[in-house]
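Homework help board

Subject: predicted structure for assignment chain

Our instructor gave us this sequence and asked us to write out the predicted structure in token form, then describe one feature. I got the tokens but I'm not sure how to describe them. Can anyone check?
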Amino acid sequence: MFLLVTGGVVAGGWFFWKKSQQPSSAKGAAPAKGAMLVQVTKVRKESYALDLDAIGSVRSFESIDISPNVTEVVTGLFFNDGDFVKKGALLATLSDAEEQAMLTSAKASLAEEEREIARLKNLVESGAAPEARLAERKTLADIAQQKIREAEARMADRRITAPFDGWLGLRRISVGALVSPGTVISSLDKIDIVKIDFSVPETYLDSVKPGTAIVARAASLSSKDFKGTLSQMDTRIDSVTRSLAARAEVPNPDLVLKPGMLVMVKLALEPRLSLSVPERALVPVGSKKYVFSHADGRAKRVEVEIGRRKPGFVEVLKGLAEGQVIITDGLVGLQDGAVVKVTAEFERPARAFNPEETW
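My token output:
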């Protein structure tokens, strides 16, 4: 004989607890005993490319130091620091008094010879003068014409003009200065499009071709990317560095990239669109790689074949399908077929550590 008391103890008798049960399928019910808490995400397609990073140097698309061809005194300057000028714009003039005098004299000589030629033509036609005298005067007229061209050419050397459209630098001389070949008056650069020179390792030559897209970023302009294309590659490989010089052209409409600036260049080689999963979802077992998929409240271990990697993510070549749900967090101790409960969706990988970041 025994006595049953719910929730109490009876001396000298047997007792037991009666556990109430609720249907696990009821809406809002607590997870089954032993269910593991996990986070999940869907398998998506993302772009995977073979990235090549290089250090580059910015160069003007066209660049020149404005300098005279002759030794002479500056008589006029017609630009300000930083001006934009069109091709052919007059920048400076040099003293040309002697050339002006030579031109005037040559023109006078030509006029005299032309008058004499006109007079002799009538005399030759009437037989009053020999044709040799007319030929002699024509030769003198040709010489006078040549002296005019020489004087004009000497005067042109004393008018300094812009050889192409571009932006001028700082003015280096003043009116009255004596200048000579090699004296820099100012610099002229075309920088609405710039060239970026960098080196490509020999091992990447099969993947890098003219027309390959590049992205450049300068340390002083870290918030902006500059996109362009590889325009040309050198014909010789450096025997010391085993690399090939390459040049890209990059639009620079805001003129923020300056000649001589150091930039980091990134090339996306062999781009392809592939299935992608967070790198933290991988479970390595020996030489194999697995992920856990999620379906009907249970985890299923799936072997996958992976390819390229990028920060926080990995390319999946085999084993998964687009849109399939996989587990990203809560993998410690997770077994194939285990009961799981989803607590959240995966948002993004952890931020990379930056030792230079200010805390």
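Reply (TA_rk): Your tokens look well-formed. For the description, you could write something like this. The chain has two helices and 19 strands. That's the kind of observation they're looking for.
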